[in-house]
Amino acid sequence: MSELRRMNNAFGIGVIKLNAENINESEILIPAKKQELDWNTIEILLKKNDNFKEFLEIVKGDITLGKIANKNNYDKVKSDEEFKKHVREKGILE
User: Fold this and answer.
1) Cβ distance 57 to 51 under 8 Å?
2) d(Cα 54, Cα 60) in Å, to the nearest integer?
3) pTM for the model
4) Distance between CA atoms of 86 and 76, rounded to whole angstroms?
């Protein structure tokens, strides 16, 4: 939790405790918040993680264009039925 709180402080990232059996009973553990970016942490992540660097380049390109150039670069939002199927397939629920 301390690392998640650090990410929240650095980036405003929120954390949800997902209830896979009943999505409506999920709870917010750490609310997301809008804030200025922590450039020191971004630099650390860029040096340690090539995937993060690629992701930032994609986001930067989309911001420059003013639209999402390729929706396949991002996760698809699942419908309730797609979500239920996904958690069963991944063994989250039986």
Assistant:
1) no
2) 10
3) 0.51
4) 12
